[in-house]
Amino acid sequence: MQQYQMTGGKDGGGGAGAGAGAVNGGAIGGAIGSALGLGNPSNSGSANNGSAAASEWMSSTHWQQQMQMAQLSRQTANSPHSYARSAAVASRTASGQNPIPLTVTELAVQLVQQNQNQTQAAKNAAAGGNAVVGRPAGGMLNPHQRKEQLEEERQRRINEDINKQFWTAIDLSGQGLTNMTPKLFNYNFLQKLYLNHNKLTSLPASVTKLGQLKVLDLSDNLLTDLPAEIGLMYTLRYLFLFDNKLQELPYALGTLFQLEVLGLDGNPLSDHTREIMAKEGTRGVIIDLRERAPVTIESPPREWLLFEEDKNNSKPRKDERTPQQLQQSRDNKDKSNSKDDKKDGSSSANESDSSSVAGTSASSVTTTTNTSANSAVSNGPPSQSDFSIMSYNTLCDRMATPQLYAYTPSWALGWNYRKERLLEEIVSIGTDIICLQEVDKISYDDLWVPKLSKLGYTALHWPKGRARTMPESEAKKVDGCAMFYKHEKIKLIERHNIDYNLLALRKDDFKKTADIYNRVMNKDNIAMINVFEQVQTGRLMIVANTHLHWDPAFKDVKLVQVALLLEELEKVVDKYTSNSTPEGAKYPKLTDGKNIPLVVCGDYNSTTDSAVYQLFAQGKIEGTHEDLEGRVYGKITDEGTTHKLGLKSAYSEIGELPFTNYTPNFVEVIDYIWYSTNSLSVGGLLGQIDPEYTKHFVAFPNPHHPSDHIPLAAQFNFKKVKDAPPKHTSTPNFGNTSYGSSRKT
C-alpha cells in the first residue's frame, strides 16, 4: 500500500489503490482516450501541429501516448494534491465498484505494459507462435510487473523495518510553488515526488539526493532547462515534463537507462527531439541523447602514493624525498646490495641489467613529495621499489553488452574503443607484472600478446574450465586469467594452472558432500600460480592471479575456492623450503616458507566484510561462519580452515579504496592485491579515482574508464632475509616430482 504525505491541503492521503484495470490491446487513442474522455488526441495543444512533418509524427503511436498523458495531466490542473486524493479514494473504494479515474502515472504504467505486450505479440507472430496480450487470467502479474512489485516490496521493507519510514511519496501538486526548500531533498527514502501544476522556474541540482526516486512529475511549471545532475538519478522510471518551456534536453538524460516514460508534450522542443520521440519513443530519445553527448569532463590522473621504508614500523610512512633523491637512494641500494642479495636464497641468477626497462623511470614522478600522475606514455611507476604489480579486471568483450551497461554510449562500450583505452591505461601504469582477469583467447592473441611483447613482456594465459570442453572456435571466446611479466627483470621458474571444481573433486572430504556437486562443481572459475625469480638478485617470488565466482548468493563457493587456492599456494611454498625436493635443493637457504615473497592478485567478488577477506587477512575462518551457514564441505564446515602464509591487503596500508567495482547498484571493493608481510613491504600504491570526477557519472565503463573495475597497482620491496642454517643434506627423493601428480587425491 502506497502512502502519501501532503503539504498545504486538508486531505492527508491514505493508501494508494491499484488504479483502473489493465489496458488490453486495441487502438491506444481509441480505447484509452475514450475511457478517459480525452477526445481527439490531435487537439492536445502540441506546438507546430499545422505542418506536414508535425502531422506525421503526431499520428504516431508514441506521440499519441504523449498527448493522452499530457491531456490527463491538464485535467488535474485545478485539483491540488490530485495524486494523494486519488489514492485516498482508491483506499475507500471496494473491489468491483465503479472504476477509479487513472492518474498520469497509472496511465503511463499501463501504456508501457501495452507496448511490451504488442512487442511480444509481434515477436511471437514472426516466430509462428501465438501472442498473449493483456493481463493474464486470474489476475496474475506478468514477469515485468512481478519484478517491479518485488523490488517495491523489498524497498518498502527496508524503509519500514530498518528505517522506520512508512510513507514514500509526497504530493505537492497545485500549490503555486515558485521554489522548493532544500530540506525536501533530505527525504532520500522518497520513491515518488509530485510537483506538477506549480510555478517552478528551476529544479535544484540537489534533487539527486533522492536516490530511490522512481516517479517525478514536474508537469505544468515554468522550467526552461534541467540540471545536468538529473542524469545521476538512474532509478527514475517515469519523468513527466509536460507543459513547460523546455527547448532542449540535457545530454545527461541519456544515462537514465531505466526510464520507461519521458513526458514531453507541450514543450517548444526541437524538431529533432520530437521526431525521435514519435518514431522510437522514450527509449529512442534517451539513447539519442546518450550517443550524442559530448565528452566534456576529463578524468584526472591517479596519483602514486609512495612510502618511506621503515624497518621499525610495520606501517609505511609517506616518503617526503624528492624524485631525484628517491632515484639516487634506489641506485645506491642496488649497487650496495646486489652482491649480497645475489646469493640470498638462490643458487644462481642471470646478471642482466634491468635499469633500462620501461616502468622504472623516475621521470613519471611529477610532484616533489609522495605522489605522481600517470601520463599517457609508458613511464610506469616511480622506481624506488624492487618490483611492481598490477591487478585489473578488464571486462571481457562478450560480457560488455548494452543490456548490462545501458548507461554507457555504444561507441564507448564497443571493444574497438575499449581495447585502446585498456592498453593505454595498462601501459601507462607500466608495472613489472600485470595480472588481468576476464581476458578471452581472442583478445589475448590479437591484442595483449602482440602489444605487450613489444614492450618486453612475456605472456601467460589460462581460460575458465568450460573452454576445455568446447570446440576451438567457441573456446577462444571464453574468458580467463592472464599474466604478463618483464622478462628482462623476471624469469619464469614454473607455472601451475588451477581449475577449482576439479581440484575440489580430488579432495576426499569433499567427495561425500552434495554441496560440492550442486554448488562448486558447476562453477568453472580458475587461478594461475607462477613461480618467478628476479633476474638481478635471484630472489624467488610466487605470484597468483584468480577470478572467483560472481554471484552474491554463493559466498560459500567463493570461500571454498579461496581455501583451495591458499592450500595450493602452501604446497608450492613447501616445495621450495623442503630438503627432499629438487626445488628445495636449488634454493638451499630457503628454510622458512615465510621468507618466500608471495603476491596474490585477483577479482574476488567479495567485500571487506566477507569470509573470503577474513580468511586472507586473519589466516583462519570458523566452520560456523555465516557465509557457510547451512552448507556441508567436510573439514571446512566441521573445523574451519586456516593458512600460514601471513598475508595482508596492500591497500589496507592506507585503508581500502572507496571502490574497485563501480556500477549503478554496486559501488564496492572486491579486487585486492594480497602480499606476504614477512618477506615484502609496500613501497607504493596507485591511488583512488578522483572523488569529484565520479560525482559526474552513474557508473563505469565510460569514455575514460573502459571497465566496470579499476586497476590496482602496488610496488613492493624485498625484506632482508636473515641468514639461516642450510637445509639438512639428505638423499633427495627423485621419484615422481610432478607437482600436479604428487598431490594427494
From TrEMBL:
Keyword set, alphabetical order: Cytoplasm, Exonuclease, Hydrolase, Leucine-rich repeat, Magnesium, Metal-binding, Nuclease, Nucleus, Repeat, RNA-binding, Transcription, Transcription regulation
GO biological process, one term: traversing start control point of mitotic cell cycle
Polar residues: compositionally biased ranges: 728-745
Reaction(s) the record says it catalyses: Exonucleolytic cleavage of poly(A) to 5'-AMP
Catalytic activity, EC: 3.1.13.4
Positions in coiled-coil regions: none
Cellular component annotations (GO), alphabetically ordered: CCR4-NOT core complex; Cdc73/Paf1 complex; P-body
InterPro entries per UniProt: CCR4/nocturin_mRNA_transcr, Endo/exonu/phosph_ase_sf, Endo/exonuclease/phosphatase, Leu-rich_rpt, Leu-rich_rpt_4, Leu-rich_rpt_typical-subtyp, LRR_dom_sf
Domain spans labelled Endonuclease/exonuclease/phosphatase: 390-506, 590-709
Source species, domain of life: Eukaryota
Molecular function, one GO term: RNA binding
Basic and acidic residues bias: start-end ranges: 308-322, 330-345
Assigned protein family: Belongs to the CCR4/nocturin family.
Name this polypeptide is given: CCR4-Not complex 3'-5'-exoribonuclease subunit Ccr4
Native source organism of the sequence: Sugiyamaella lignohabitans
Encoding gene per record: CCR4
